[in-house]
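Appendix B. Chain record.
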Amino acid sequence: KKLAFDRLIGLMILIALSPLMLILAIAVRLDSPGPIFFRQKRYGFNNQMIEVLKFRSLYWDQSDITGTQQVTKTDKRVTRLGRILRKTSLDELPQFFNVLNNSMSVVGPRPAMAHEVNKYDSIYERRLYAKPGITGPWQIGGRSDLNLEVSVALDLNYVFNWSFSQDLAIIL
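Structure tokens predicted for this chain:
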């Protein structure tokens, strides 16, 4: 049921927003040199590595292609267009391709970074029992303003108490 919902929503959003995504792709290319997409390895369902897609919002630096350095609100590496993309979350639109390839869900726990998973104890690892989402309780609960413990607690609550109506409420 959730898989069918994800695929349907993902396809509908990609079709509906394809003109905007094309414009954004061209804008990213014109804004600064480098690839259009940023690809980052993260942990997904059952601790499997996935490649999360985003529109590139930082100046391209081959020395940090893994994206392990934390980006701050005043980070000098963020491009002019990148500031807008990040503020509006438009940089995350390519993740709907992740939904179509079944590595992500529309709603779910935040895709975990390696440095975070290394800090997990057995209870935290349970957040990896669900496919990561483009959005989720962590995003509507405070996004990057949350510390790791609060973010994981929101994700665990989501995993243990999942419901279709909760997914719809998060999307809305």
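Further analysis of this model is presented in Appendix C.
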